[in-house]
Amino acid sequence: MGIQFNQVSYFYRGVKNETYEAINQITLNINDGEFVAICGQTGSGKTTLVQHMNALLKPTKGTIQIYEHTLPLKDKKTKIGPIRKKVGLVFQFPEYQLFEETILKDIMFGPLNFGLSLKEAEEKAREAAKLVGLDDEILQKSPFRISGGQMRRVAIAGILAMEPEMLVLDEPTRGLDPKGSDEMMALFNELHEKHGKTIVLITHDMDIVARYAKRILVMDKGKIKFDGTRELLFISDEFEHLHLAKPQAYRMMEYLSNTLGYPFKQVFTEEDLLAYLKEVRHE
Ligand SMILES: Nc1ncnc2c1ncn2[C@@H]1O[C@H](COP(=O)(O)OP(=O)(O)O)[C@@H](O)[C@H]1O
Ligand SMILES: [Mg+2]
């Protein structure tokens, strides 16, 4: 199951009807249970790619299998709802999409749309709110009277209330402070580890990529230029052409190795680096 892209291209149309190819002949499998990060420069096609994953965009060429559904849809009567329920897409700056008068109502919107009763929708909404760490007391407040980080949680709860199998997140930590960003990532990691959600996450933050992603895709000019593990990414011959940074701990390790002659070993987090230093110092 999961998602399979088969030779997918997407062309945006400009005002003069000219076309611009944003992704080019992408063939890609996302399997159930994966935690995939997507990186790449601005304009490389990341958002366009992931917007196909819940049928927000339809391929100009090629086909996509999204669980039991196929894009392009057979005809106009085929409903998109079931795809949206399977794959929850959280936009960049999702807080701009809040609109209801209370937080609870905002989170209930999706489940109600999929035909649940008021009571059932409220149950799902309360569960989702709890999952993202929103207190019960806050649920009757207006979504416009809370902090940006909280607003983002409300938007994510709204997606989770539909109980998707896969969560697709477009730069979810962008604009958050370091603490907010860490908390957000801890949440996604918990959804992955404890609740078995498949995660597809676009980010520029290589510390996040190296800490959480089990598989990394790097896009460049509408194509996938790298698809593999962190262990392979940073030693890949392609790496310097991908315009990516290395994780901080990794760079620190390189520095220690170059200046003090420590034998180099790949480390991806501060904890890895600390463990390594303890090992070489025989502590
Ligand atoms: N609505 C749109 N209309 C026309 N071109 C677009 C539109 N959205 C994105 N593009 C173009 O498609 C390319 C890929 O964009 P995007 O998928 O947003 O990349 P990324 O998310 O990696 O920054 C870019 O060159 C961008 O300018
Ligand atoms: Mg983008």
TrEMBL record:
Positions the record marks as coiled coil are none
In which organism is this protein found?
Paracholeplasma vituli
Similarity comment: family membership: Belongs to the ABC transporter superfamily. Energy-coupling factor EcfA family.
Q: Which InterPro entries match?
A: AAA+_ATPase, ABC_transporter-like_ATP-bd, ABC_transporter-like_CS, ABC_transpr_CbiO/EcfA_su, ECF_ABC_transporter_ATP-bd, EcfA2, P-loop_NTPase
EC number(s) given by UniProt? 7.-.-.-
**Alphabetically ordered keywords of this record:** ATP-binding, Cell membrane, Membrane, Nucleotide-binding, Translocase, Transport
- Write the protein's name: Energy-coupling factor transporter ATP-binding protein EcfA2
Gene3D superfamilies from the xrefs?
P-loop containing nucleotide triphosphate hydrolases (3.40.50.300)
The annotated topology with respect to the bilayer is: Peripheral membrane protein
* CDD domains reported in the protein's UniProt record: ABC_cobalt_CbiO_domain1 (cd03225)
Principal EC category: translocase
